[in-house]
Amino acid sequence: MGDNSLDIWFSQMDTDHVKTSVRVDKHLFSQESEYQRIDVFKSKEFGKMIVLDGEIVFSEADEFIYNEMVVHVPMAVHPNVKNVLVIGGGDGGVARVLTDYPEIEVIDVVEPDEMFVEVSRNFFPETAKGFDDPRVTIKNMDGLRYLRRCEGKYDLIINDSTDPFGHTEGLFTKEFYGSCYRALKEDGIMVYQHGSPFYDEDEQAFRSMHRKVYKCFPISRVYQASIPTCPAGYWMFGFASKKYHPLKDFRPDEWKARNIKTWYYTTNLHRGAFMLPKYVEELLEEEEKRK
């Protein structure tokens, strides 16, 4: 029978009728934290993967795509970022990319789940090394509760929380986006996970998110990336701003002069990421017209 009799596959349910399966070599970690079940698998294609409540959050093979797209897009637009808030971000990947910018003075990471941070440090040291930068402070508390205490404090907020349901549900409400607006300075930018609109059962959450943000911020745009471990391999991000437009205020030459090494992001891709498929444009426009 050969080795195939020992096949172990991890399956992520993308919908009730579609699953993504990855052959895994080892199940390295499994435990329930106060907030969620955390698993770490080792696979041939994706390297180590961290899985929260059955959903792949990131893998060694494709985490660079997500982390680069939530950091470099706003950083190539906003001319003067000093204070950054990362909501979620317990794996340290977003913090790590932010540390490439010497002008940033403060990186506050608000991640309620201490176990998630520890697991990331233990199994993904290359990702979690962002936490070792002296500008980074980890605050183990609820993101919405933390935001309620902030006013006009941050130049950039990155909402890196994983899921509009479960324990992070409060981070996808109207109150949350209003709190982000208040916590930003007068020219602040918020970037957030916008999910994947491809499957019908994800579409409502996608629509609702855009509607809420569009009502809160004068500038609200959506951009995309191709991430293999995300549902349908297709992931969207939101760019919401009080002042700066992601294309009209884009500063490609200044960004290129920084010589930051990337694997995914380029200034050409920055422009292209905001050019969306017709069906996505229509979903967004429908929500914008709603009263």
Question: What does the average pLDDT come to?
Answer: 93
* Cα-to-Cα separation, first versus last residue: 62 Å
Portion in strands: 25-35%
Apparent shape: globular
Strand order of the largest sheet: 8-7-6-9-10-12-11
Count of DSSP-assigned helices:
10
Q: Tell me about the biggest sheet?
A: 7 strands, mixed
Q: How much helix, percentage-wise, in residues?
A: 25-40%
Radius of gyration: 19 Å
How are helices and strands ordered from N to C? Answer: EEEEEHEHEHHEHEHEHEEHHH
| Helix-strand makeup class | alpha/beta
Low-confidence runs of at least 5 consecutive residues: none
Number of strands: 12
Question: What features would you describe in this structure?
Answer:
The structure is a single chain. The protein is of the alpha/beta class. Helices cover about 30% and strands about 30% of the residues. The chain has ten helices and twelve strands. The protein has helices spanning about 65-75, 95-100, 115-125, 125-130, 145, 175-185, 200-215, 250-255, 265-275, 280-290; strands at about 10-15, 20-30, 35-45, 45-50, 55-60, 85-90, 105-110, 135-140, 155-160, 185-195, 220-225, 235-240. The strands form two sheets. It has a seven-stranded mixed sheet, with helices on both faces. A hairpin with a 7-residue loop joins strand 11 and strand 12 (about 235-240). Helix 7 crosses helix 10. The protein starts with 8 loop residues before the first strand and ends with a helix.
